[in-house]
Design a protein that fits this description.
The protein is of the alpha/beta class. Helices cover 42% and strands 14% of the residues. The protein is elongated, with a radius of gyration of 20 Å.
Length: 191
Amino acid sequence: MIDMPQVPPPAYEQVLTQKLLQCGLRNGGFTVKYEDELQSIEIVIDKEAGASAENLECIRQAAGHEIVTFKEPEFRQVYQDRVFEALKPTMLADSRAELLKYGVLDGFPERSKFGSDKLFAEALERQCGMKPGSFFVQSQLGLIGQPKLGRQNKADEDRMSCLMAAIMYVSAKGEDFKFGFIGNEAFAPEK
């Protein structure tokens, strides 16, 4: 039997709705609903809700770890940036602890010392004991992270965990490192 996350009671949705109303959002301008496919509460905020730059922090605190989607594009990015800023100290501490656990924090590469994202990505792979180019590949769309498919041994899992911690560390430090992820679909790297 598979353990599935418990669906929060309807009262939880009502509590979230009340908190968002206290933030100044207008009733009927947003929805708070459990989404089965996300296995989470999703809060969707329409223009009619009256969201403003002044109440974004209140919305973030009220929503907690729930998914928040703004219909207005200008608020979407501002909100995501605010959530990222709030999570940055935790991300930095957690990723730093992971890198220390793997013994790779000393001599950790700095993005500014590399002429391209590809060269920096290869340095991150080397730092975590991976062969350069084994995770990050260059494509026509830019640098892509392509995880290995199938089972991995413990050493490969540890190297991948190290690399994920390294990526989180670089992001939390605010270093300019751009790449995308590819899923399970086929991918042909540039020659």
